[in-house]
Amino acid sequence: MSVDQELLTELAHRNLLGVFGERDPQKRAAVIAEIYAEQVTFSDPDEVVVGRDALGEKAQRLLDQAPGFAFSPAGPVRTSGNLTMLAWHLGPEGQPPVASGLDVSIVEDGRIAHLYTLLDPPA
């Protein structure tokens, strides 16, 4: 089965910037409805959440904890089959990042079905 690499790249960027980097709840909800499977699973070092609503709530909590901070890609999207990886930085805009990590997603039927966030150890 051939997987559209452009689609995978777009999904990875929209996940980072259009969901976890989007502070407008209505814009974020619209992207969530477009790019995630209905029963998407999201896992990070703190918890696992299931479903679009829970993922949206998780994104809101993360944004609430980091006012004035922005996510930015830290390199290109890497893909293998239906798996994507995108490294990222988080910090005040225009300043060195305070956190970095990696998002790994598994895409099924053109939507992100599983999303894993790995955090880099503090410098």
UniProtKB/TrEMBL annotation:
This is Nuclear transport factor 2 family protein. Gene3D superfamilies: 3.10.450.50. Residues 28-114 form the SnoaL-like domain. SUPFAM superfamilies: NTF2-like. InterPro entries: NTF2-like_dom_sf, SnoaL-like. It comes from Paractinoplanes pyxinae.
